[in-house]
Structure formats: C-alpha cells, structure tokens
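Folded chain entry
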Amino acid sequence: MDAQIYRSVGPDGRVQYSDKPPTGESGKTMASKGISATAVDELKGEWVVASATVNGEPVVDEKIVGAQWMFSGTDWTVTTRKGEKGRFTFQLLPESGPKEFKYAPVAPSTERAGEMIYERTGERLRVAYMEIPDQRPAGFEPRRKQVIINLTPKAAAQGPGYASAGAGRDACSILRNAGARTLLRAEPFVATPAASAGTDAACRLEGAAGMRVSVQLIPVANRATLDSERAKQVKQAQTAAAPRTVQDEPALGEGAFVVLRGNSTLLVALKGDTMMMLAVDVAASNHAAVMQFAQQVRSAL
C-alpha cells in the first residue's frame, strides 16, 4: 500500500510535505485553520497588474496599472512602473466567504494596513479592497470606494502568452492606429504617462475642446463578466440624475452594448478573453464616427 503524504504550511508560509501527520502549531494543516490547502499557492509568485477599476470605472494610474506584485512566504512586495517599491507582510484569513488576507506595511512605508479579498481563476488573479479604512469588500461587484485589480503572471507578461491575455498590448498605440487623431480633431496627448511596452493595458488621450478617448483592456475568463458589466450599467442608468441609455450594439460582437449620456459614449465589447471598455467624449452627432472607431479598436485586440 502506498504511504500517505501529508501537506501542511509552516510559520513562514512555505508548503511542506511529509509521510507523518503534522503536529504542533507550526504543523497545523490549512484545513484546520479554516483555509484551503492551496490558498498560499494561489498567491505565490510574481504578477503584473493588467487592469484596475475604482468605483466601477477604469483607471490608468501608473502607480496601479503595470505595477509588479510578488508574494513570497508572508512577504508581499509592490513595485510601480516608476520603480517605487512598497513592502508588506500578509496573512491569510479563515474562509467564511471570499478568500481573504490581511496585510500590514513594513517600515519605512507609510501605507495603511488593510484587508483584501481575492480569487484565482486559471492564470488570472483578481483582488479587491476598499479605499475607506476599516471597510472590507464583500465581493467583486463594483461599488463606491472599491478598487478591483486584475493581475496576470509576470512570466506570461514577458512572453508570447501575455498578448492573448489582453494585458500586454500597447493600448495607446491601439487608439492612435484606430484613428484617434481624426476623431479628436487634433494630435492627442497621453494624459497619464504611458507604461513601457508590454505592460500598458489602459490609455487615455485628449484632443481639442475637452474631447477625449480612453480604453481599458480587461482579461476575463468568460462572457459572464461582460453580462455583469451590462447589468451594472442598466442599474446605474435607472438611478442616474442625468439621462443615460443602455442599448445592445451587435456591430461590436455578441453581447456588446453601448451607454449613451449626452456627449459621452461608453462601448463595452468582448473579443476572445479580453473585454474592451472604450469611453469617448465627442459631439453626440459623431456617433457614426465613434462606432467606426470602436470597431477599429476591437479589431486590433
């Protein structure tokens, strides 16, 4: 008969294997702590932030998008695209809902401590936290003051598979090549400094008279994310102070939709495993031009 192998996690967060049952505090199994045995493995490694939303809206903050995260043992390190580094310690919490860990900054960092929920789907990692101290996110549905971050493995980000994840493309180049200059009636400029090639999954360009266009490429596992985003937009439209309309847009693919609000247009579509969120602020009379531009952007994904 084959010997039974026991799996446990030591005090340093390292996974251990033995042919003897674990004993003592350091030998407690993850299950005995209310934590799944694979929880540490799900976070372990180096990641790149592919995209992020705050209050349900895409962001291009260079301190977030394109940053590199590394989980090792009980250490968590974040390095921004500018090379700014922050170090934290983290601890997994018992599972009573979404998987969760609490974290605390390591001096000389002045960041606050907090809690994050997370979920791992294949080679994708998603985390969420609240900008308001002492508040904990209950799930991944967008809400006020909640930050949701999508990450992809760093190894994939540097290799051929990264582009297929929708995160390693140069979003600014996609906008320019799709005709942003013509749409905005001027040579646009990047409102936020672009990331280095291979890590820029979001971009905002501005032209004359306040006209602007932004895009975020969000890696998704299936169409459920697109449908969830549509449901959220419909709900917001029902309670919005300013009139807005949500309608299907089959020209951008199955399940695609558009949100119209004055001179602002949000187009959301899926291609492969990438969800495109394209926001355009131009004269409402240019809707045909906006649609043509959106089709060009989607074709480039």
